[in-house]
User: Fold these one by one.
Assistant:
Number 1:
Amino acid sequence: MTAKSFVDSNDVSHRKLSMTTLPELEAAADALSPQQKQELFLFLAARLRTDATQLPTPREFSREQIGSWIADDEDGMRRFEATEV
């Protein structure tokens, strides 16, 4: 098989792709080699960069709010550790 016939036989531009749902695409991605998965990832990352709108502004939390979350989390852990199994 010549290089040209290989390219021609593997050219999918004229074929209708049958993968239309996310599960179908995920299954196809699972079947790729590690190198092909990396190429796909880089392709998608490049597309996301060009399609991306401006990122939302970061959320800001006061020290008091963060301290409250930490205290609540630590209280929950104490209750969990005190629970008998």
Note: The radius of gyration is 25 Å.
Number 2:
Amino acid sequence: MKTAYVAATAACLLSACASSQAITGTDGREEHLINCPGLALSWKECSRKAEEKCGGKGYKVVDRVKDADLVSTIPGQFTTAAQARVRWVKIRCGGSKP
């Protein structure tokens, strides 16, 4: 099981995939939190993942964090800016495409 997890993680990193998680919005409706970290991914990848999650129904951006570099006070936690690059968007399906 651990080997499968490591292999899947490595494949994702090498293919530059965005991740998503279904969450409940403040009004109780389903939203998706999409993460596109590092230098290998861009906002375009976040948009592709949003379109994939919404199946062509369009989506509305509820919130997002623009490109930001994290700063760590723990030595060795982030060794390059690419590892610390943060980019995520929260969407709700069914709205107009951005």
Note: Confidence is low (pLDDT under 50) at residues 4-15.
